[in-house]
Amino acid sequence: MQEISKTLFEANKLFKTADHLAYVTYPLVRDNKIMITITNNLMGAMTKAIEALLDYDRYYKRIMYIPNDFQSKLEIFRKSCAPRYNISTSYLSLLKELKDIEEARKNAAMEFIRKDQYVITQDNFKLRTLTYPKIKEYVNQSRQFFNKINSILENVQTQWSKRRSKKS
Question: What are the residue ranges of helices labelled H in the chain?
Answer without folding.
Answer: 2-20, 26-29, 34-59, 70-76, 82-85, 90-106, 132-167
